[in-house]
Design a protein that fits this description.
single chain; about 475 residues; alpha/beta; TIM Barrel; 7-stranded parallel sheet; 3-stranded mixed sheet; 16 helices; Beta-glucosidase; hydrolase
Length: about 475
């Protein structure tokens, strides 16, 4: 769901009034999926009890939301990413991405051994998807462009794929024809495999030039209709989890971390990749502002991981640890955009393993966003931890913190379908306020938010939708 509050409406989240507009974009693809499968239950009042009710709201679910439920300017939408939605992996002139290779070569890395070869087949069925969005009353859709669908050989010199251009033009036009605003992400982790083979992808600074070339093509062909660009989706995830623990493509980490990794160094590579991602972001924003923004009148920003942290105890150590945790997550990729440098705690702890920005790069980074996207899913209790063993250095432990979803035997909220997610609605408000105060009151979009379940979709939609309605309507939105 996409939510947009003007400053006069901030009281709905308990947020203070400000001089700027705070835009909140909450994306819940769950409802779209339920409608798509024909398995949705009606959005009617419910009195189902829940073990984690908010004291601020009663247990009843409001009647079905529609356009008149929201104030003027309110955005209500859903989101996707190219690899997870498009399918058509070998069609339309598309080149391979690192995710195509990862799921093909290492199928066991995915829980159900699935892949994105077909996904939900949006490539062929986008008109049906847009019709569902319109029927639901949505007016925004965040999707990502597949870099190798636009540039099958990774670079502009390797040729622009006209079929890819046509597909995204058709999707954008279909959205606009149905009153739906496109929010377009340039990079949702699908680096062209050819660049991974050639120079290691984002492990090399060469990627910056090639990424900017790709972005230039997107701005040229789509920018006349796209008013909201997101350069990177969750650079923390594509650094830490792809190169620190090997959970995401290309699956790299130190052997002591995971014997199934394809190679790597958990103590250095995530920082190198993160550095190059930041430079790719800043250089792309510079290009857009200098070449396109004045005529196209669009905005450009970034979508960040925004897991919230709460001190496990009242001790000074745990309070300091909680701030370090924020520094090593949101701060890792926000501080450089606000100050031109990494958080002080990161520079102090990581030391020489953390790349440095030149004076010119620092200047380019500072202020390189028109808005900030926050992807919020969960909150954890944070406690202090000792420094890492120098033999086993890792970006996952450098913050010298421990995170737990349980305090005194009580979970922070209901457990979702993945091991790391516990539902804690208040965290979304806390992280918005933190971002507002720390980063000089930027325009904020909640670019992702959702609830994961391992229950089959049709069963979930028919049986558990009222419960999820209550959690999200009562606690996240009202």
């Amino acid at each position: 769901m996409t939510i947009s509050f003007q400053s006069s409406n901030l009281r709905h989240m308990g947020l203070p009034r400000s001089n700027s507009t705070l835009l909140l974009l909450i994306l819940l693809s769950f409802y779209l999926l339920c409608h798509a499968t024909g398995a949705s239950s009606s959005l009617t009042p419910s009195t189902i009890s829940d073990e984690h009710n908010s004291d601020d709201h009663d247990d009843r679910v409001p009647v079905a939301a529609n356009r008149t439920s929201f104030p003027a300017g309110f955005l209500f939408g859903t989101a996707s990413s190219a690899y997870q939605y498009e399918g058509a992996a070998g069609e339309g002139g598309k080149g391979a991405s690192i995710w195509d290779t990862y799921t093909s070569r290492y199928p066991g890395k995915i829980a159900d051994r699935s892949n994105g070869d077909v996904a939900i087949d949006e490539y062929h069925r986008y008109k049906e998807d847009v019709a569902i969005m319109k029927n639901m009353g949505l007016n925004a859709y965040r999707f990502s462009i597949s870099w190798p669908r636009i540039l099958p050989n990774g670079t502009v010199n390797g040729g622009v794929n006209k079929e890819g251009i046509t597909y995204y033009n058709n999707l954008i036009n279909e959205l606009l024809a149905n009153g739906i605003k496109p929010f377009v992400t340039l990079y949702h982790w699908d680096t062209p495999q050819i660049l991974e083979n050639e120079y290691g992808g984002f492990l090399s600074s060469k990627i910056v030039k090639d990424f900017v070339g790709y972005a230039d093509v997107c701005f040229k062909y789509f920018g006349d209709r796209v008013q909201h660009w997101v350069t990177l989706n969750e650079p923390l995830a594509s650094s830490l989890y792809a190169y620190g623990v090997g959970m995401l493509a290309p699956g790299r980490c130190s052997k002591w971390m995971n014997l199934n990794c394809t190679g790597g160094d958990s103590g250095t590579e995530p920082y190198v990749v993160g550095h190059n991602l930041l430079l790719a972001h800043a250089t792309t924003v510079k290009l857009y502002r200098e070449k396109y923004q004045q005529t196209q009148k669009g905005k450009i920003g970034i979508a960040q991981v925004s897991q919230w942290g709460i001190p496990l105890s009242d001790s000074k150590q745990d309070h300091k640890a909680t701030q370090r945790q924020m520094d090593f997550t949101l701060g890792w990729f926000m501080d450089p955009l606000a100050t031109g440098n990494y958080p002080r705690s990161m520079r102090s702890i990581v030391g020489k393993r953390l790349p440095k920005f030149s004076e010119e790069e620092s200047k380019m980074l500072k202020g390189s966003f028109d808005f900030v996207g926050l992807n919020y899913y969960t909150t954890a209790y944070i406690s202090n931890a000792p420094p890492s063993n120098p033999i086993f250095l890792s970006s996952t432990t450098d913050s010298q913190t421990n995170a737990s979803a349980v305090k005194n035997g009580v979970p922070i909220g209901p457990k979702a379908g993945v091991f790391w997610q516990y539902i804690y609605p208040k965290g979304i408000r806390d992280v918005v306020l933190y971002t507002k105060r720390k980063y000089n009151n930027p325009v904020i979009y909640i670019t992702e938010n959702g609830y994961n379940s391992r229950i089959p979709l049709r069963v979930l939609c028919a049986t558990f939708l009222p419960r999820i309605n209550k959690i999200y309507y009562n606690n996240f939105i009202l």
